[in-house]
Design goal:
Layout (H helix, E strand, L loop, with lengths): L1 H5 L6 H57 L8 H13 L5 H6 L1
């Protein structure tokens, strides 16, 4: 474009400035779009990480509760287990509820 101007071409100064402004605007729009895409992907990654963390937490809690209650279903309740442990701490012989279980 400038070579046309240098050679006495037909492109006026204002047209060149307009074209440069348009190019700059297009570049800015492209940069903004790229930034938005980066923000979206970062947000998406954050959400995915959070989802994974929550899943792991749930899995850990489920495992922990199964260990305490002795698997699924008719295990010993946590309060009963704590009661039995207290009893065992004080008395060397098993508690009445433990005798029933065995």
């Amino acid at each position: 474009m400038r070579s046309q101007l240098a050679a006495g071409g037909g492109v006026s100064r204002s047209q060149e400035e307009e074209e440069e402004e348009e190019e700059e605007e297009e570049e800015e729009e492209e940069e903004e779009e790229e930034e938005e895409e980066e923000e979206e992907s970062a947000d998406h990654r954050r959400r995915r990480r959070r989802r994974r963390r929550m899943k792991k937490r749930r899995r850990r809690r489920r495992k922990r509760s199964q260990q305490i209650t002795g698997g699924g279903g008719g295990g010993v309740s946590r309060s009963q287990l704590e009661e039995d442990l207290d009893w065992m701490w004080i008395n060397p012989e098993p508690s009445p509820s433990l005798r029933r279980a065995t």
